[in-house]
Amino acid sequence: MFEDISKVVLVTDMDGTLLNSKKEVTPKDRKAIEYFMSLGGRFTVATGRTIQSFSHYYDLLDLRFPVIMFNGSVIYDKSKEKVVYTECLPKHARKIAIEIFNEMPHIGGEVLKTYDTYVFSNTEYEKKHTEICKVTPIYKSLEDIPDGDWQKVLFAMSPDEISDIINLVNGKSYDGVRFVKSADIFFEMIKSGITKGSALKMYRQLDGMEDCTFVAAGDYNNDIEMLKEADLGAAPLNAQPEVKAAADLVLQHTCDNGAIAELIEVILEKCGI
Fold it and tell me: What pLDDT score does 9 carry?
């Protein structure tokens, strides 16, 4: 499985895995990634971020392979400036979002389309998300956001309120959508069946990827399916307990002190390098 490093694809989550608590790539991880790629290894990312919010990372990480975005609803190939795979929310997602927002009108929220971000409730917690993602949003009510290519709806709230929205959606029978907690203050609606894991399964079918070995790393609930789909799934030491339980390997380092560098060392050892 690890006979040829040029056939090894390392896919990592961003926040809490590749990015440290300051939202930076540590020098240790950057050096390890550069070395891995110099040997022929393939490196890419699976993120909840949008095409717009991810743009500055392409050059920073020297990414040469397609990236999984929107928590799995898009695979984007920057070299071709092309979406090579997408699964959008069903049209009735607007009605669901309006119903949830009517039940919890004080929370923040945004609709993430393929190339734009629409904020419909600009609370302090919502502002945290647009600041993290470094996007310039468009402000519109849920009713006025254009139809088509809704990739996900993100709700932002205090950590204490996350359980309230989870209980709310669990008490409903919404068809065609699923919900995922992507951070302590963020809760997302995406198309049913769509995860980073489902996107990784599609990634295996991309040209030149068919016979590759996939290694994935992630720290949060929205990474679990990806770790299970990978040939080797790893969690940094700072990962959530349920993520560690789903991983094949729990690393000894956190995102702050070189978890990805440690994982690359494991890969190199398996490749006999």
Answer: 98
Q: How far apart are CA 240 and CA 208, in angstroms?
A: 33
Tokens at residue 44, please? Answer: 């890419």
Strands 8-12, 213-217: pairing kind: parallel
Question: Which pTM was predicted?
Answer: 0.90
Are 253 and 28 a contacting pair, CB within 8 Å?
A: no
The side-by-side arrangement of strands in the sheet containing 177-183 is: 138-139, 117-121, 108-113, 150-156, 186-191, 177-183
Residues 165 and 192: their CA atoms lie apart, in Å, by 18
Question: In this structure, are residues 32 and 258 in contact, taking their beta carbons and an 8 Å threshold?
Answer: yes
**Which structural domains are found in the chain, ordered by start?**
5-86+195-270 (3.40.50.1000), 93-191 (3.30.1240.10)
pLDDT tens track for 43-90:
999 998 899 888 889 889 999 999 999 999 999 999 999 999 999 999
Structure tokens at 140: 């519109």
DSSP label at residue 88: P
Assess contact for 51 and 69: CB atoms under 8 A: yes
